[in-house]
Design a protein that fits this description.
Blueprint: H1 3-14, E1 25-33, E2 38-46, E3 53-60, H2 65-78, E4 82-86
Protein name: Acetyl-CoA carboxylase
Length: 107
């Protein structure tokens, strides 16, 4: 499956979950799974005073950061949500040379 097809699949699953409600926060969460060597995509819906809903969208059997960059650019072009990362401590973007997720401080 190409990155365009994967992005379309994630968008097709995420857009129906995105309802423009008052006082509701939506986030796209990307998790690096080092055991299965894949990226997992989730939609998080948070409303104060309610249960936080986490809906799995898709998993990509790749750990190539360039593929992730392309996927996120395709997704963010159509779906303007905050992207949250987990499991990427100390890993840098290939093109931007900045950290995806800052390394944890050692106190």
């Amino acid at each position: 499956m190409t990155n365009q097809q994967t992005a379309r699949l994630i968008l097709d699953r995420a857009i129906p979950l995105f309802k423009r409600e008052y006082n509701v926060q939506y986030r796209l969460k990307v998790v690096l799974d080092p055991y299965d060597h894949q990226f997992n995509f989730y939609m998080i819906r948070f409303k104060p005073g309610h249960i936080t809903r986490v809906t799995p969208l898709h998993h990509v059997k790749s750990t190539n950061i360039l593929d992730l960059e392309e996927l996120l650019s395709l997704i963010e072009a159509e779906l303007k949500l905050t992207v949250v990362f987990a499991g990427f401590e100390g890993i840098k973007w290939e093109s931007k040379k900045g950290y995806i997720q800052r390394p944890k401080r050692k106190d």
